[in-house]
Amino acid sequence: MKKILLLLMALSYTLLWSGNADILLYKVPNKDHKITAQTLADGLTINGYVVSKNQDMNGPYQKQFQKTTFDSYNLMSVYHPETSVALVPKYAHSGIFTPFSIATYQKKGDDDFYIALLSAQAQQNILKVKDPLITKLEKLTKETITKVLPTAVETMLPYEAVSTDKPLYTKYSFEVEDTDAMEARGDLMMMMESGMKPSGFVVANYIDFNKVLKEEKKEDYMFYDAYSLCKLKIIYELSKNKPEAGAFAPCTMVIYHKKGSNKTEIVTLSIENLTSTLAIKDKKLLDMLVKAQNTMKAIIEDSAE
After folding, report:
1. Which of these, 26, 37, 48, lies nearest to 150 by C-alpha position?
2. Cβ atoms within 10 A of the Cβ of 108, count?
3. Residue 86: which H helix or E strand, with range?
4. Cα separation of 65 and 235, whole Å?
5. Residues 160-187: what's their mean pLDDT?
6. What pLDDT shows up at residue 18?
7. d(Cα 193, Cα 207) in Å, to the nearest integer?
8. 282 with 170: CB under 8 angstroms?
9. At what angle do helices 37-46 and 132-148 cross, to 10 degrees?
10. 39: burial class by Cβ within 10 Å (0-12, 13-18, 19+)?
11. Phi and psi of 292, rounded to 5°?
C-alpha cells in the first residue's frame, strides 16, 4: 500500500510539473502596474547584461492593427557579454542567441506581469550543442530575474512542446575569398535590406559583435554581425493567444566570415522552433510562418548571387 501511495505521489508530482520545458515563464503580481519592462531591463543592465533593445509593441499594434489585448507588451534583445564572448568563437552558429529574446507582457484585466524566454534546454536542442556555459547562463538569468523582481514566481505553460525531426536552424554558406570578404559583406547586406523592407521584415536591432570580440582579444572573425529581425504581422497574430511567442522575437540572424575559411555564412532560426515549441496547429498561422521563411530564404539566396 505504501509503495502504491508513493507511486501515486510521484505520478501526481510529474503531472503537476508537466508542461513546456522550452520556455521559462515568470509570473509577477502587478495589480498597480508599477512593474514595467524597463524595470527588468534596468535590473539586467545593472547585473552585467546588455539590453540592446527594449521595444514597446503595443504602440505598433495600435497603429497598424487598431487593436491590442495587452496593457503592455515588450520585446527585448539581450545578451551576456562574458558568456557570448566565450561561446561564439567555439560555436559560430551560437550567435543566433546573441542577443536572445525576452518577452514581457500584461494582458488587459490581468493583475499579473509575465516574463518569457527560451530555456537552456531549448537553446541547446536548437544548436545541437551541450555546453555548461549555456546552463550556467540560464542559472544566472533566473537568479537575476528573482533578484530584480523578488515576487516573481517561475510557472509553467499549460501545454507541452511538440517534437520535430526537422532542422531547427538554417545555415547558408557562400564561397568568398578572405581578401574580398569585407567588400562582399557590404554588398550582401545592401541587397538583403532592399529585399527585406518590401516583404515586411524589420531590422529591430543590429550588433557588430566582432567589435565586442576584438575588445576581448578574440580575433577569430573578419566580421560577425547580428541582426534582430521581426515581422510585425506574425508576432501580432502569435501573441493574441500565445504571448510567450515573444521568446522567439525578434529572431537573430547572424552573418560572419571566419578568418582563413574563404566563406561567408548566414545562420537563421527555422520556423519549426515556433511551431514545435508553441504547439501551433492553426493553419492560417502555419501558412503565414512558412511563407515568411520561404521569403527570407529567397532574399538571402538572391542577395548572395
Report:
1. 26
2. 9
3. helix 81-87
4. 12
5. 93
6. 53
7. 15
8. no
9. 120
10. middle
11. -65, -40
pLDDT tens digits, residue range 211-243? 999 999 999 999 999 999 989 999 999 999 999
Q: Quick one: pLDDT band at residue 20, thresholds 50, 70, 90?
A: confident
Radius of gyration of the chain (CA): 20
Q: How far is Cα 120 from Cα 138, in angstroms, rounded to an integer?
A: 6
Mean pLDDT of 50-75: 95
Q: Mind listing the pLDDT tens digit for each residue in 241-285?
A: 999 999 998 889 999 999 999 999 999 999 999 999 999 999 999
End-to-end CA distance of the chain: 71
Measured CA to CA in angstroms, residue 27 lies from 105, 106, 123, 246, 253 at distances of: 10, 10, 22, 15, 29
Nearest to 278 by CA among 118, 115, 94, 108: 118
Report yes or no: 74 and 103 within 8 Å, Cβ to Cβ.
yes
Match 551560437 to its residue by C-alpha cell.
94
Per-state percent for the chain, helix, strand, coil, to nearest 5: 45, 25, 25
pLDDT band at 19 (very low <50, low <70, confident <90, very high): confident
| Main-chain phi, psi angles of 29, to 5 degrees | -55, 130
Q: What is the pLDDT of residue 197?
A: 86
Domains of the chain: 20-303 (3.30.310.70)
Which three three-digit cell numbers place residue 300? 538571402
pTM reported for the whole predicted model: 0.91
Distance, in Å, from the CA atom of 91 to the CA atom of 78, rounded to the nearest integer, reads 19
- Return the beta strands (E) in the chain as ranges: 23-29, 50-56, 70-79, 100-107, 112-118, 153-155, 169-175, 201-208, 221-231, 251-258, 263-269
